[in-house]
Amino acid sequence: MNHFELFDLPQQFTLDAADLQQRYRQLQQAMHPDRFASSGEREKLRAVQRTAQLNDAYQTLRKPLSRAEYILTLRGIDIRHEQQTISDPEFLMAQMEWRERLEEVAASNDLLADIGRAEKDLLEQTAALQSELEQLLEQPTDSANDAATEVVRKLKFMHKLRNELERLEEQAY
Amino acid sequence: MALLQIAEPGQSTAPHEHRLAAGIDLGTTNSLVASVRSGTAEVLNDAQQRPILPSVVHYGAEQTLTGHEALAITDSDTENTIVSVKRFIGRTVADVQKNFSNLPYHLSETDNGVPVFNTAGGQRNAVQVSADILRTLAARAEATLGGELTGVVITVPAYFDDAQRQSTKDAAQLAGLNVLRLLNEPTAAAVAYGLDSGREGLIAVYDLGGGTFDISLLRLDKGVFEVLATGGDSALGGDDFDQLIVHHLKQEFGFDDKVSAKIERQLINAARQAKETLTDSNRADIQIVINGQDYQLTLTRDQLNELIAPLVKRTLLSCKRALKDAEVTADEVIDVVLVGGSTRVPQVRSAVAEFFGKEPLTHIDPDQVVALGAAIQADILAGNKPDSDMLLLDVIPLSLGLETMGGLVEKIIPRNTTIPVAKAQEFTTFKDGQTAMMIHVLQGERELVDHCRSLARFNLLDIPPMAAGAAHIRVTFQVDADGLLSVSAMEKSSGVSASIQVKPSYGLGDTDIADMIQSSMSNAKEDMAARMLREQQVEADRVLEALSQALAADGELLEPSERTKLDDSMEALRIARAGTDKAAIEQAIETVDNASEEFAARRMNKSIRHALSGKSVDSI
């Protein structure tokens, strides 16, 4: 059973987050280990494993980047462990600017405020890539899939930047 | 030793029978036990009608005392009276001494870094001391409820790491208790408040106890309590406030930092009393006689506020981070709940009110609310409320990671991931013919191994010899609903499951626990065998009862021939259960498990379909 089938949802990128959450809670009601607290050890272990799968499925579908990656995997394009880089020179230039900006933020006197500003810009750029992705994934052609894959690669870069910002923030605490 | 209720062989317990279950708040300073009686959760008092059991154990040459009796002699026999043992659970001596440099105990350490208290009553570690507290509470519950406990829910700080959780569970095992669940303290408090108010939405639980601080953000929706984020500090609490006052007193009285254990204890008691006085008054007069000399001082509330300000600020930073992790803002929070005795300090209350922009709720006794919530969950897990739709979804408080090249940590399960969770990671060999490999598991948020908590080192052995990079070892890390980690491994190309040898970085191994259980029994060998047989019989009863109920509900999912096979295996288990051969029972359970595998899978599919169809009816 794939993640979409588990939630009884159509296999598409567009998804109603509130509906997904509701389905998730209903499945939890049926599957959670607490529902098997007075069962035997084997049944308890199975409940833990099933719920771990449910949680994984939910987390995968909930976030746009992992959802897109997952859809591409179902279409036979697995880029989860690839090392391929991006060839778009404009995007690479923007990445270098981001790197410089992160260094500036790290040296900032007002770390939390600068992190907040950088995060806001990052979110805007990420949102633009996501809507591009949404359109591409609606088209079931090879060329659209390839283009979507390239956007996913870009989103992964953005995701890494986000992680680095979070790491900087961690140091502020 | 507390035991489980066991039905007559061959008969399952009647479905309407109320099973005795309790919630235990095993606190740094005080512990409580609560249970649901006639539909209401209530704290169970001792024979003198006192709800609280001070978390203090005295190990004298003659006898062991717990609670109030032990507390009464902390001043006179400080070295042999263990207070705040929760500080030591899953910790090394060095960990504890970071915050408490002047411990009055004769401490030593095992090879594995487990602190040992050398007392007049012998050597004890934190697991054993905690087990003594749990035993006292369980005995109180059984006396009050008039029967043996089926199981207990024990609360732990949300911010407890794997070692601290495992040690708490070990203590329960040592005390002979069946742990239905380790429940995070703020989640327990949310249950008590959420069910009380019936309000739905985002709530924040600020829990400042004697030795730990937790902040949890939960979303309440139709019986589901979903923890969005948790944060805190497992070594910050009211005891630290006391320490700051003690430090102040030493300066004012002209004492050295290092004083005798007895004087230290006197100062701590005076500090605690002053702190409590300052809850309702603006000034506290401190008066102590040390070595026959009178010492006097007045502490004002403003002075106290100034002393504790840095610690209060630290708690608010954790709140800020938790909000961020949960991707919510402070004004989305509909209710703020205060838990833990240290939230009585006025400065703490006003700081929390200011931070969240609303008056916090305190109408359920902050000392009792955790135990009450735990009792409610224990009642449900014991099976007394089959129709309840309450469900608690909790998270892992600290990221789990692996050591990679150069002493760096690679995160595999980030903090605030909903549990249970499983993540698989693949490893490969870097030498031809390599047959073993070591995996170092850490917990924490920092990048460097040295800054994270080392949980365990796993040795993967018996990897089939292959060329470098050819073996693919898939290691699965699983965190269960108690927040406890387990690891399994498999070589993919050959399908050989690599064996794993776990060496906890510190803490107790399985054999240590078995040894401790054995040594706590008077006639060790026979008792141990009897206990293991009884545990197996209880397990057999659980399997049979759960399966009987499942067959009654969904028997039609099986073909007659499948049903006959399953019935036969169950009958064989009933016969084995009536005997005294532990291995035979174990074997019969396995046969039943195998025979019911397919039935369990079909039932799960049915219940998933049912759960989701319920949804579409709702949404129409």
TrEMBL record, chain A:
Keywords: Chaperone, Coiled coil. GO terms for cellular component: iron-sulfur cluster transfer complex. SUPFAM superfamilies: Chaperone J-domain (SSF46565), HSC20 (HSCB), C-terminal oligomerisation domain (SSF47144). GO terms for biological process: [2Fe-2S] cluster assembly; protein complex oligomerization; protein folding. Residues 119-171 form a coiled coil. Transmembrane segments: none annotated. InterPro entries: DnaJ_domain, HscB, HscB_C_sf, HscB_oligo_C, J_dom_sf. One of its GO terms (molecular function) is ATPase activator activity. Residues 2-74 form the J domain. Co-chaperone involved in the maturation of iron-sulfur cluster-containing proteins. Seems to help targeting proteins to be folded toward HscA. Belongs to the HscB family. Interacts with HscA and stimulates its ATPase activity. This is Co-chaperone protein HscB homolog.
From TrEMBL, chain B:
Belongs to the heat shock protein 70 family. It comes from the Bacteria. PROSITE patterns: HSP70_1, HSP70_2, HSP70_3. GO terms for molecular function: ATP binding; ATP hydrolysis activity; ATP-dependent protein folding chaperone; unfolded protein binding. This is Chaperone protein HscA homolog. The keyword Isomerase does not apply. One of its GO terms (biological process) is iron-sulfur cluster assembly. Chaperone involved in the maturation of iron-sulfur cluster-containing proteins. Has a low intrinsic ATPase activity which is markedly stimulated by HscB. HAMAP family: HscA. Keywords: ATP-binding, Chaperone, Nucleotide-binding.
